[in-house]
Design brief:
The chain is an alpha/beta fold and 302 residues long. The chain has two domains: 128 residues, 2-Layer Sandwich (Nucleotidyltransferase, domain 5); 161 residues, ATPase, nucleotide binding domain (Nucleotidyltransferase, domain 5). It contains eleven helices and twelve strands. The strands form three sheets. A five-stranded mixed sheet has the order 3-2-1-4-7. It has a five-stranded mixed sheet with strand order 10-9-8-11-12, with helices on one face. A hairpin with a 3-residue loop joins strand 1 and strand 2. Helix 6 packs antiparallel against helix 8, helix 7 packs across helix 8 and helix 8 packs across helix 9.
Amino acid sequence: MILGIDVGGTSVKFGIVTPEGEILHGKRFMTAEWVSGKGFVESMKKEIGNYLHEFPVIKGVGIGWPGLLSLDRTEVVLLPNIPSVKNVPIVEILRSEYPSILFKIENDAKCAALGEYYFGENKKMQTFILIALGTGVGSGAILNGKLFIGGRGNGTEVGHMLTKTGKTLENQVGISHMIADTKALLLQDKGITSSLHAEEELSPKIIAEHAAKGDKLAISVYANIGTLLGESLVNIVRVLDVNNIILGGGISGAFDHFLPELKKAMYANLPAYYTDELFVAKASLDNDAGLLGAAGLIMQGV
């Protein structure tokens, strides 16, 4: 059995993962409470100990982190939401405390890619890139059955790619930026033609619901996202030589609304070598992808 841990800016999720991808004995802890309490690392170490005591069949622990890692995968080198873990030898600390257990860490978006590889609807697809569209824009690539980490260990940070606007992709299609742009469009909508004016709060789901009802402003929001994603994917496809793309994260719920413009941009700028067999699909594991992928670290042996 494997213990998977998915560290997020809001919560830290634990779960025992079976070889079939079933999550057992899941728990969730608030990240802020660990940061402000006895210390994040100490809190994690204690909870891992609780699991190992209760379930001695656990042989390995995989942990996904929303930040940059050292090339040797022993430390987190950049994690703005949890600064106390920066450059802390987390793997060494855990191995010293529990020497019989295998510990591995990885970036959370890369874990999500591993989760899809081992447990998703398209599992065992040998080459693909997963783009996680949420508060930020993360990604992970599986190339010929292996997780790609880049020359220094932190490759495929596609959210930080510049687009034709001069802004990064994340600063335009990340959830907070997307909502801010929608509000700006609503302020310009002097004729108050959009049904979104009636909403007190906006979210990707609400905007998608209005787009499904034919609201032109909501449709334009997702059309713009589709174009930006499609143009960025042209670059990604060319650099990594992949034509299988999986889209996950909170914004992926509006997949059908941005897919047409995404494909339009890709087909217009890629040769038949890529487009003849271009595959673009929605991720199948939703919020469990990171935790399952963390367990996949132990399965893959990376």
